[in-house]
Structure formats: structure tokens, C-alpha cells
Amino acid sequence: MPPESDAMAVRTFARPRLLLSRCIEFDRCRWNGDMIASPVVRMLAPEADMVPVCPETEIGLGVPRDPVRLVRAGGDDRLVQPATGRDITAAMGAFAIRFLDAAGSLDGIILKNRSPSCGTGNVRIYAGTASPVVAAKGPGIFARAVLDRYPGLPLEDEGRLRNFRILDHFLTAVFTIADFRELKEAGGGIRRLIRFHAENKLLLSAHNRSLARAMGRIAGGGEQEGMIPAYEALLLQALARPPRPGAVIDVLLHAAGHFSGRVTAAEKALLLDALGRYRRGQADACAAKSIVRAWIVRFEDGYLDRQTFFAPYPDTLFARDAEIPGHGRDLWAERPQANP
Ligand code: SF4
Questions:
Q1: In this structure, which residue's CA is closest to atom 4 in ligand 1?
Q2: Separation of 50 CA from ligand 1 center, angstroms?
């Protein structure tokens, strides 16, 4: 959080604590000795405290190892290793409890997709140990324990995070939750809560206006027992879904109202054009947000400058360029020449 006195302060961000499947960028611990490349995790690692874990190696399966799979047997899902006939469901369940008991506070979770241990929901559950028939799909065994232990916490798999909208929502949620965790670790208190709510007011209004109002009532109700957990429950609820475009547009128009009479008709038209493209699904909200951010800086609007809505996570994580194939290469120099 920026110091209250600075009109145009540079925001410092809390470092989110993220549970991570260790085979994503951290270790060659997959069944075949592979590691999963994830530009998102690489980008995020310097800004977050990662808690990497590989449940399969933790329960004693080596690298390389025979693959495991989920099997539905008598209405029950079992984690088995077909090549050896081992059933490791109980071992995985016991490890998950031990590990999660010791994991402490987390702000978000990134797990490996489709893994029978870590997969978050799209894992094949086979009809039998040797059967090719997929009876259903669901989360992996370790992921089930994580979901039970941390309901409401942002959870994604590395595959989904390749989508910018999903990534933007995930980063917004985990950095906001990390900020709130720091507030709790600093002792909570009504003054910190009022400040947190004030700085996140536009962000929360965009996500869920009625929950934002309810949170405002808690922050405005003075020091009370249970106010921090009550506020936190609503915060997780509000951040569970991304904001609707209409709500984002309302917030941006409200913010733009701070500059009425001070920006030119052409500048206003530029903003309305960017909002129109966002509304029609032809662009994301970045262009419109950048226009209003430029006005905030130009007119030194301290209130809006402190609104996390405009920069919910570090700008360094906004590097979608990393996803652009050939970024940094002179692709035109590589064109075939008509007359070499
Ligand atoms: S998906 Fe999970 S269990 Fe499998 S290698 Fe990765 S971290 Fe280990």
C-alpha cells in the first residue's frame, strides 16, 4: 500500500504465496522426467513466494516412474499405478493432509492440468485399471484435498492461465488477497480495514457492487469483533468471478467524470471509442484503462491514483509480449527474398 500522504505514490505490492505443482518450471519430476514450461509462472516467480510441491514424488514414487491413473471403482475414485497394481489413494490422501496442515496461509493455487494427482477438474477417471473407457472427469486426488482445504481461494491450472482474461482475473485476485493477508498479519484493526476498503473501492464495485456495499458497511461500522473474517469471506466471494464488462465500463466512466471539463472533446472521444470496442468484445479494457490512467497522472488525482482498480498487480506481469511468437526477433529479415 502507498503512504497516505503521497498524492502520486508508487504502489508497492504484497508478495502472494502461491501453491504450485512443482513440475511447472521448478523440477523435472513428471513421470517421464519432464518439466512443464509456463511463461506465466516464469514471469510470476520473481513477484511471488512459491510453495512448490510434487505429491507423487513425496509419497515415494520415483522419477521416472510408471504413470498413475484415476479409476472409478464401486462409486469410489482410486489412484492406481496399473503397471505395478499399486493403489496409492490412501498414501496420497494422508500426504495431502500432512502437507496442507503445514502449508500455512496461501493467496492462490496453480496446479498442473490433467494430472490424476494435481489436475483441477478435467482429469480422466477410467472405468477400470486397464480399461480405455473414460467413465467421468474430475479433479485429481491431491487437488480434491486442496479444494476442500482452501474453498474460495483463486485456483487455476497452468493451461487455463495461457488465456489473458483468466490470467488477468487470477492475478487481480491473488494480489488483492495477498494485500489483505498482510493487513491481517499486521494485526488487522479498523483503520487498516477502512484504508484497504477505500483503496479497493472501485475494484470491488466492478467485481460485485452489492458485495462491495456490504463490505463498505463492515468497514464503516467501527471496530467490532469478527469484522476481519466477515470482510474476508465477502472479499473472496467478490473476487471469485471476473467483473462484467458493463460494470468495468461504469467504473471507468465514473473515474473519467473526475476530469470532466479538463480533457478535450477529442480525448473523451478516444476513451468512448476504446470503451465501445471493449463493450463489443473487440478489445480488452486495457486501452480504456490506460487512457484514464494517463489522465490520473496528468491531473495528479491522488484518490484515483490509489485505486487498485487501475493497477491491481505489478505492471511487469502485464507482459503479454512474452506470449507473442517471435517477440524480439526481426521476423521481416527472415522473409524469403524475391531476388537474393
Ligand atoms: S502433476 Fe503434480 S504429481 Fe504430477 S509431476 Fe507435477 S507436481 Fe508431481
A1: 30
A2: 15
Please state, as a whole number, how many other Cβ atoms lie within 10 Å of the Cβ of residue 141.
27
Q: How many angstroms is it from 47 CA to the middle of ligand 1?
A: 23
- State which amino acid sits at residue 338: A
Split at pLDDT 50, 70, 90, the class of 252 is very high
Q: Which three cell numbers stand for residue 194?
A: 477502512
Ligand 1 atom, smallest distance to 119 CA:
1
Q: Which of 191, 198, 178, 192 is nearest to 307 (CA)?
A: 198
Q: Which residues line ligand 1 (CB under 6 A)?
A: 21-23, 29-30, 54-56, 112, 115, 117-118
Please report, for residues 81, 296, 322, 326, 339, the alpha-carbon distance to residue 334 in angstroms, rounded to integers and kept in the order given: 48, 42, 20, 11, 14
Per-residue pLDDT tens digits for 187-202: 999 999 999 999 999 9
How far is residue 165's CA from residue 146's CA, in Å, rounded to a whole number?
Answer: 24
Using the atom order of ligand 1, give the atom closest to the CA of residue 112. Answer: 1
CA distance 299 to 92: 57
Q: Which atom of ligand 1 is nearest to the CA of 57?
A: 8
Burial string for 142-155 (b: 16+ CB within 10 Å, else e) reads bbbbbbebbeebbb
Decide the pairing of beta strands 86-87 and 155-157.
Answer: unpaired
pLDDT in tens, 212-240: 999 999 999 999 999 999 999 999 999 99
* DSSP classification of residue 200: T
Atom of ligand 1 nearest to the CA of 29: 5
Helices 286-298 + 265-279 axis angle, to 10: 150
Q: Is the peptide bond before 64 cis (omega within 30 degrees of 0)?
A: yes
Cell of 109: 493455487
Residue boundaries of the structural domains of the chain: 17-162, 164-239, 245-319
